[in-house]
Write a structure and sequence with these properties.
The protein has about 170 residues and is mainly alpha-helical. It has helices spanning about 1-25, 30-50, 60-70, 70-85, 85-110, 115-135, 145-169.
């Protein structure tokens, strides 16, 4: 059962996580909820990294294992940032998770030629979404609108990649 959860869970968790981030940007989700979500995310990442290590030693799975293991750092930064109300640590979490999966998407796109556009496109969307979010205050629309748009673009790119991976494998 754990193996099935590891193999299919991310297809639900990735889009759900970005939906929560978008909701937080429009004050639908409280910081306390985000703090709890980050603590849960750290737990899931560690469990996934430990239990999936044996199956993720080669190729693109190795790259994704590194993304997951390294991803504990921005998740921990987010937890600390939310607990201490530290904007810099919160930004490390947000931009870390916007951009870190792009590494895995690029690697997967290079290796899975029949879906390379989906994966490489997902990586591009991660970068574009992060950039839109970063400059949201300077764009000619409401800052919250631009920030949520950036989050949505990242979420779409990452969700497309993980959904393809779950369905393909």
């Amino acid at each position: 059962m754990l193996r099935v959860a590891r193999e299919t869970g991310p297809a639900l968790l990735v889009p759900a996580a970005w939906a929560v981030v978008a909701a937080a940007h429009v004050d639908v989700v409280a910081d306390r909820t985000l703090l709890i979500a980050h603590a849960v995310m750290i737990t899931l990442l560690v469990v996934f990294a430990v239990t999936g290590r044996a199956d993720m030693r080669e190729g693109t799975l190795r790259v994704w294992w590194v993304v997951i293991a390294v991803g504990v750092v921005p998740a921990a930064a987010g937890t600390a940032g939310l607990a201490a109300e530290n904007a810099a640590l919160r930004a490390v979490a947000l931009y870390g998770w916007m951009l870190l999966p792009a590494v895995g998407l690029v690697d997967t796109g290079r290796r899975v030629s029949r879906a390379s556009v989906r994966y490489l496109g997902g990586a591009v969307l991660c970068v574009i979404g992060a950039a839109v979010h970063a400059v949201a205050g300077a764009l000619p629309v409401a800052t919250s609108t631009a920030a949520v748009a950036g989050v949505a673009v990242v979420g779409a790119g990452q969700s497309a990649g993980i959904l393809d991976a779950v369905l393909r494998y």
